[in-house]
Amino acid sequence: MGIMNTNRTLPSNLMVFELRRDLTLFQRFRQNIEPIMEMYGLSEEEKQAFRDENIKKLSELGVHPYFLPQISRIFHGSAYNHNNSEAAQVYARNMVDGADQEG
Amino acid sequence: MAQLVSTIALSHAPGLTGWLDKAPKEEQDSLVNGFSELGRILRDTRPDVIIGVANDHVLNLEFQNTPDFCVGTSDKWEGPAEWFKDWVAVPHYEVAGNKQVADTLVNAAGREGIRFAFRDKLLFDDNWSVPLYYLTPDYDIPLVPIHMNCVVPPLPQPEYCYRVGQTIAKIVRDELPDDMRVAFMATGGLSHDPGGPKYFDVDEKFDRWFLGLLEEGDPEKVLREATIDKMVAAGDGGTSELLAWLVTMGAVGDRPAKTVCYEPAVELRCGMGCVYWDMS
User: Fold this and answer.
1) Using one digit for the tens of pLDDT, what is the confidence trace for A2-24?
2) Facing residue for A65 by CB, picked from B89, B194, B200
3) What 3-state class would DSSP assign to A25?
4) Topology of the domain covering B3-277
5) ipTM for this prediction
6) Contact status, residue B186 vs residue B168, Cβ threshold 8 Å
7) What's the pTM?
8) What φ, ψ does residue B105 adopt, rounded to 5°?
9) Do A3 and B57 touch (CB under 8 A)?
10) Of the candidates A93, B46, B62, B150, which lies 20 to 30 Å from B122 by C-alpha distance?
11) Mean pLDDT for each 10-residue chunk of chain B (280 residues)?
């Protein structure tokens, strides 16, 4: 996957685009992801990938690459985002090591 | 006739402000000294305004209708955007814009066949927050931000980016107020792969090749060899931010770039460097 494989019309892309722009929406998402995913019309496959924090699956569905580490930060925090931070490590297990989840 | 007094290009990865202490000490020193030196070079030219070109990290330019370039037309900017504050880890800042310059860019470019989108609200993330922190720590030089699309296909081609830079230089020369001193800045790159399997790698070989290419001062060769395919191969998610550097190159002609610093900063997840072109 990569930037050229971005699915521009994928509801997940529209949702993540807004999550980073709207702090109120982001906080509502952190409290309960279900109504926000419903509001943006995510498919069941997309919803399950978010429930599982399955970044690799979201990549395969066409979520923009730039959003993938950001999704990890949405769930695990952005501060002091060094290579051993929780957000970076969750990304690594999904996308680099392939250890956590299979697509 | 305004004057283009400074042209620079630099990386903007957030590790430079957010977790720099994780890099080896010599790398930290090289980058802090290099970026600070670039700031001194910029400020020594006493610019009245900076026209900046940076990748929009899919933060403002929507998937539904992604322009190649979008000029910020406000007289006042601030950053970092709320969700990015703890990531970028620089204090909140305000910096003036210049609506007159921005409006002129939009309308004059249109007459040259270049369609710039424009808006007076843009969220800033690392794209401006990291460069301004090092280059203009007092935030005292007005910025006209141009957000460009470097990562949502289809990307603007290198030749077009170069032509956009040529057009901006022409507008500075022919349309902006007499005696205005203008700096032109690109931010983005070098190799990095946010969202890809090489997220924790840097392509040092590509980075040094690219910087060497710019140092040759041969724009035709740069356009021939610095293809989007090569950028993507060096790091799919972010290396094509170097298209912004090709925009500024349109303003420098055959002047050779001078590299101030470069570090293959694996701990910052980005090849980090900066260059300037002597416009005197």
Assistant:
1) 999 999 999 999 999 999 999 99
2) B194
3) helix
4) Protocatechuate 4,5-dioxygenase; Chain B (3.40.830)
5) 0.96
6) no
7) 0.97
8) -60, -45
9) no
10) B46
11) 97 98 98 98 98 98 97 98 98 98 98 98 98 98 98 96 98 97 98 96 98 97 97 95 98 96 98 97
A78/B84 Cβ within 8 A: yes
- The sign of the dihedral angle between the CA atoms of B63, B65, B66, B70 is negative
Size of interface A-B (CB pairs under 8 A): 106
The DSSP annotation for chain B comes to --EEEEEEEE---THHHHSGGGS-HHHHHHHHHHHHHHHHHHHHT--SEEEEEEE--SSSS-TTS--SEEEE--SEEEES-GGGHHHH----EEEE--HHHHHHHHHHHHHTT---EEES-----HHHHHHHHHH-TT--S-EEEEEE-SSSSSPPPHHHHHHHHHHHHHHHHHHSPTT-EEEEEEE--SS--TTSTTTT---HHHHHHHHHHHHTT-HHHHHHHS-HHHHHHT-TTTGGGGHHHHHHHTTTTTPPEEEEEEEEEGGGTEEEEEEEE---
Domain extent listing, chain B: 3-277
Q: Best of A81, A86, A96 to disrupt the B interface by mutation (most B CBs within 10 Å)?
A: A81
- Selection from A70, A46, A7 nearest residue B152 by Cα: A7
Could you tell me whether strands B3-10 and B270-277 are parallel, antiparallel, or unpaired per DSSP bridges? antiparallel
